[in-house]
């Protein structure tokens, strides 16, 4: 069997990658309302070479908002300039301040808090969202905690079984939404969600928990629509 590795076209940014990624996610500069539905576009294109994809993108890509704007090289350049501005004027000063105040005790407390306190908070939060809310909204759905390997690899906390099919649930504290604006999932998570849907036939929904209650109530309607779709799929 061949071990040939496909050529990669992505640039390497070394140590700068973490800063660029953090700022880009924080200020939502790679969201569909800024660069279009990138993954949907490339699947529609099915390019054989990168030049084919590049040409297709600039012909078809529009921002996803009330008044769509056609994406051009100038639009991407402007986003890059905005990213640089955010990093130099906001991110670096904030981090420099944090670095200057950071103590050994902060690090010790952080590791302990992360391991004990936050793990327990997260466990109780998940239980409350599922047992106190989702199970009452959807009594016919069998909610099951994800297996360890699925939770780790697929970013799924619970599966909601509708017959032999299932949709996925990821539960985030409301602070995740506050920290990242309208929370943007990573490319890794997008891939894992797609893999989940291929296996279980259902979509993955992100629920933001506020003191054990669902913060983004609009997700209830979306889940109901998915349950209806899966029920129809059984027929």
- Contiguous low-pLDDT stretches (5 residues minimum) are 1-5, 177-182
CATH level-1 class of the largest domain: Alpha Beta
Structural class: alpha+beta
State the end-to-end distance.
41 Å
Q: What series of H and E elements makes up the topology? A: HHHHHHEHEEHHEEH
Beta-strand portion reads: 5-15%
Instruction: Compute the average pLDDT.
Output: 86
CATH third-tier fold name of the largest domain:
Trna Endonuclease, Chain: A, domain 1
Written account of the structure:
This protein is an alpha+beta fold. The chain folds into two domains: 16-96, no CATH class; 104-234, 3-Layer(aba) Sandwich (Trna Endonuclease, Chain: A, domain 1). It contains ten helices and five strands, in the order ααααααβαββααββα. The chain has helices at 16-26, 32-35, 38-45, 50-60, 73-101, 104-137, 148-154, 174-179, 187-200, 218-234, and strands at residues 142-145, 158-162, 165-173, 201-210, 213-214. It has a five-stranded mixed β-sheet. A hairpin with a 2-residue loop joins strand 4 and strand 5 (213-214). The longest helix has 34 residues, at 104-137. The protein is globular and about 50 Å long. The two termini are 41 Å apart.
Question: Which SSEs are present, and which pair or pack?
Answer:
Layout lengths: L15 H11 L5 H4 L2 H8 L4 H11 L12 H29 L2 H34 L4 E4 L2 H7 L3 E5 L2 E9 H6 L7 H14 E10 L2 E2 L3 H17 L1
Parallel strand pairs: 3-4
Antiparallel strand pairs: 1-2, 2-3, 4-5
Notable characteristics:
235 residues; Trna Endonuclease, Chain: A, domain 1; 60% helix; globular; five-stranded mixed β-sheet; 10 helices; disordered N terminus; alpha+beta; 2 domains
